[in-house]
Amino acid sequence: MRLREIYDAVLGAPWVYDRLRPLLLGGFDFAAVYAWLEVGPEDVVLDVGCGTGHALDHLTTFRAYHGFDPDERALARIRATRRVAGVELYARAVTGADVDDLGPTVVVLMGLLHHLSDREAVALLADLARAGQLKRVVTLDPVRVPGAWANNLLRALDRGGFVRTEAGYRALLAGFPPRNVRSIPTD
């Protein structure tokens, strides 16, 4: 096994994501970020890169939840620990046809964009922008901050190969019609 494969195997383990990640984030409270979605009982949630189902800790009412993640280990963790009605899981990347068929009203992209190239991210956002019933999208990704060496070291160790500056993320969203963009201060 090559070093990168070992690295991905260790950091991709569900217990690392569920236990170690919160420590590295310094106890960041994701509740406020998920609250921005304002999910109600009639909403169809599309969670792209759903991982171990962290969103299900915060989204307690919805008509349907569709979680996409190519990591079967993460999906197995959801199936074993989160028995919630209305949840469908897909062990693959989401497609434009999925967006069209599922008709999401809210979309979760938590920690996803830094795993996608600019081309992949722009294509996904274009698929979402076509969804006529879409009310809200939330994303929260690590950011490179000039001069913040500790932050940038952690970002360099992240498995996502496309950690950007805040301006880089905003450039991805240039073609997406945001009505209410919120940024969390980086200093």
What can you see in these coordinates?
A five-stranded parallel beta sheet has the order 3-2-1-4-5, with no helix packed on it. Helix 6 links the parallel strand 4 (106-108) and strand 5 (136-138). It has 187 residues and is an alpha/beta fold. The longest helix is centred in the middle third of the chain and has 12 residues, at 118-129. Helices cover 37% and strands 11% of the residues.
Q: Structural class, judged by helices and strands? A: alpha/beta
Distance between the termini: 39 Å
The counted number of beta strands is 5
Strand content: 5-15%
Strand order of the largest sheet: 3-2-1-4-5
SSE arrangement, N to C: HHHEEHEHEHEHH
**Largest sheet data:** 5 strands, parallel
How many helical elements?
8
Broad shape = globular
Question: How are the elements arranged and paired?
Answer:
Blueprint: H1 3-11, H2 14-24, H3 31-35, E1 44-48, E2 64-68, H4 72-81, E3 87-90, H5 96-102, E4 106-108, H6 118-129, E5 136-138, H7 149-157, H8 166-172
Parallel strand pairs: 1-2, 1-4, 2-3, 4-5
